[in-house]
């Protein structure tokens, strides 16, 4: 099958693309710049052989630019929407880098492009029908998404989910917990403070429960969805690690795996939002008040729906996942070597 991955160069998109390739499918990697995407994929062992055999192709398109999507969605069997804006979760409304414009708007634009290219017929509200050959649509959502959530990111993703489910396409939604792994911008940023500080700051009291999920498990699940049209049909699947843990336990375990002894400094969220209100206007926009809330929210995935569809799918225990890339025998690119 030919699979379009929107956001293929992102943290999650790279893992999804690798595992879909590994399952024997063809990946059309979509990014704002096909040239930059090709360079990012050069380091992947699977990429060179896949390019030579025509199983990995690159296309320039932007989910916020509808006209660019028509060629991208043509001739594919599956569309995976996992695009995220640069700097997330810090939004930049002036540049159009927001959850509403990328998650919600970008998803609507992809659905519209599919409708145009595959000539969907509409007999009435909620009665859109596609001809044979229209792609299945998979969306990477979040574990905290719900109909009544008030946060901007949750509302944007809920509205994107609703549009997908009413599109007339076969669909699957993966509500992922906080994903971590090599190259992530969240956990690694927190742990990076241990390079030069005698403590690690965490917003809030750190007692909120999480089911952090290894990014390789995210990629594996999407490959399974591609492989199994029946099990993936019209499925909403929360995804998380096998055991709920607190933020304190998560960060503490990561530090322990790294061999670093650092206390966690709890920064009250109202206090953290004061400098964040200024930092959001500085070059690079390192923090915003919304990002303080985003990074300190909990979120526990109920794996029941996933196991009903894929009974043999197991996610990686948190410590084992952390040891695979943060153990003392592994060097993070940001590590300064300090214990």
What does this 3D model show about the protein?
With 339 residues, this protein is of the alpha/beta class. The protein has a single domain (2-326), classed as Rossmann fold. The protein contains 14 helices and 15 strands. The chain has helices at 11-22, 34-41, 45-52, 69-73, 99-117, 152-165, 187-192, 215-227, 229-232, 247-258, 269-279, 289-296, 304-309, 318-326, and strands spanning 2-6, 26-31, 56-60, 78-81, 121-122, 128-129, 136-142, 171-176, 179-180, 200-203, 209-210, 213-214, 235-239, 245-246, 264-267. A 7-stranded parallel beta sheet has the order 3-2-1-4-7-8-13, with helices on both faces. α1 crosses α8 (215-227) and α5 packs parallel to α6 (152-165). The protein is globular and about 60 Å long. Residues 332-339 have low confidence and may be disordered.
Distance between the termini: 47 Å
**CATH architecture label:** 3-Layer(aba) Sandwich
Low-confidence stretches: 332-339
Helix/strand/pairing category:
alpha/beta
Q: Report the average pLDDT across residues.
A: 91
Largest sheet: 7 strands, parallel
CATH domain class = Alpha Beta
Question: What attributes characterize this protein structure?
Answer:
Rossmann fold; 339 residues; alpha/beta; 17% strand; 14 helices
